[in-house]
Amino acid sequence: MVLSMDRWVGKVAIVTGASSGIGKAIAASLVERGLIVVGTARRSELVEEHSKQLSGKKGKLHGFTADFTKEEDILKTFEWTTKNLGPVHILVNNAGITKETSLTEGKTEDWKATLDLNVLSLCIATREAVKVMKAKKINGHIIHINSVYGHTVFNVPNLNVYPASKFAVTALTETLRQELNHLGSKIKVTSVSPGLVESEMTTLNKAQSLERKAFLEKMPILKSDDIADSVVYALSTPEHVQIHELTIRPV
User: Fold this and answer.
1) Tens-place pLDDT, residues 235-251
2) Which positions are annotated as active-site residues?
3) For the chain, how far is it from start to end, CA to CA, in angstroms?
4) Of 58, 61, 157, 180, which one is least surrounded by beta carbons within 10 A?
5) 3-class DSSP string for 153-220
6) Which of 28, 20, 44 is nearest to 231 (CA)?
7) Stated pTM of the model
């Protein structure tokens, strides 16, 4: 199997949650390989600063301010991208959150925030990307940044609805694959499921409890670049090959 990113050079990708961590690393990897990348974030100024750092690379990074818990912001992202840069060929659903609380005492708004971003925004963005790809007859690629928590519930304190949100991503990946097959579409879908990754959601989270911090410090950990490399691998496969699930664990 020959791996190549050549067919994506000059094409448009949307990476959600691109201001830091995994999303930032993925955006950089795609720009380095010649893609035009729209990095969405509430803190889009960080994406624009990152764009300056990537000046001179083969591709280009554009920051776009969007809160993906709001459907209108998701729709505006795709409208702006199509109008200003062209149709999307790659969507990386990376934006996600976790709230450190419990199922027995947690606040409804915290659970809802997790489900809105981790599940519903992913569905809405995927729907909009598929619309564009179908209309323009693009054999695109949709990548969901999932988690090992989307396959197993580990004994970790205060996970609440987070594993449920990621189990949903696992189911949504398979459901979308079946829908696309039924339509005779060549659009690919890949779930990338990392273990613990150094990010603002984990070890770099200054608001986490001492209990969570102590737990995470004992765990082996991945870097954001490891996940970006995994995304590039999935995108590099020939058009007749689909990596449906890619699980990455630290050793």
Assistant:
1) 999 999 999 999 999 88
2) 162
3) 27
4) 157
5) CCCCCCCCCHHHHHHHHHHHHHHHHHHHHHCCCCCEEEEEEECCECCCCCCCCCCCCHHHHHHHHCCC
6) 28
7) 0.93
